[in-house]
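Extended Data, panel c. Modelled sequence:
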Amino acid sequence: MFSQWKTEGLGSSEVTLPRQSQCRKRLQLGLPIGTASHRLRKRVLFHLVQETGRDTCYRCGLQIVTPEDLVIDHKVAWLDRSAHMFWDLDNIVFSHAQCNSQCRRTTANRRLGPSKLRKVGGPGTAWCNGCLAFLPKERFHQKKARWNGCQDRRIQPLCHLSAIGEALVEGLFQSLLVSARSCNSKVARDPNYFFFVLALGPIDS
């Protein structure tokens, strides 16, 4: 639709299309206009915060020295309490981005418990929610959508079972093996005989 726009009274020359305007702004600024506008708003806010003497971090008490470190914070957390507290200007303060992030993690830890937070182990490892342990990343399927690039459970099929479930499976394995060895057949004495039992069903001894 926009490509059909023409200027009136200027012959056949086309007006500057919205898409062309965006490209020109991006070429001149060296970055998308949305990103540039966000940075400009943050610089203006930082300048006003400095002028009013409110450039002290509410969390750590140190000075906020760059626009990138400045974030809007709330004295009292509004989530799960009241939407009014989100908009209340008396509840608004300024903090370092890192201090604000640490505060959110601490609050989430108290509200949800450690199990809801990211579990970070040694290099090349990931947390398995089935085994409740850190395992090498090679034992997980990849999942780019997750923060560590791995599934939350390892590849092995018994991982999703509880400890009781694993014990039951192990007990079934042992009982089938004992039953197989009690048979007179030479094949039945083979430790792998239980696979035939599982596939063909019970065999009378």
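The CA atoms of residues 180 and 188 lie 5 Å apart. This feature is highlighted in the accompanying rendering.
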